[in-house]
């Protein structure tokens, strides 16, 4: 072994150690907490949320770089699992920062290969913050601000030829005589307003 190789081996071992699994308290537990899963090929960490309890075979892949463990930069993250006999998949295309969606991107949800939900717009700390949300099977389209689990801020909901536009608050739009709710029960909007 050459002297240069002897000096490089400890450095290589140190670099490989940095790509170990994520800390136990930051790992995803389906149905319990969001967290990291590890890309089976490169050891990259990908942040995953919304995987239900009972999910089996949770796996992920990342097409971009991961200089310190978490996925970093532009790429494509694919998360798959089985749930109640169906194959589920989430595909994120865009920028990841420390393993989480950050900046412009698109997240597509598939059930047995069929697109069921798509979000395209801005992400911060792995949360969709606004853009276009679609449910292709129903033709529903929402465009506007988003906070955590629903419309928030100025937005427009189109469904079955009807358009509901205005300032949404946590999934609720006051339409004068009635509440329009999206991502939550309508009664909860009225209850919150009283």
TrEMBL record:
Gene3D superfamilies: Histone H3 K4-specific methyltransferase SET7/9 N-terminal domain (2.20.110.10). It comes from the Bacteria. This is MORN repeat-containing protein. It comes from Roseicella aquatilis.
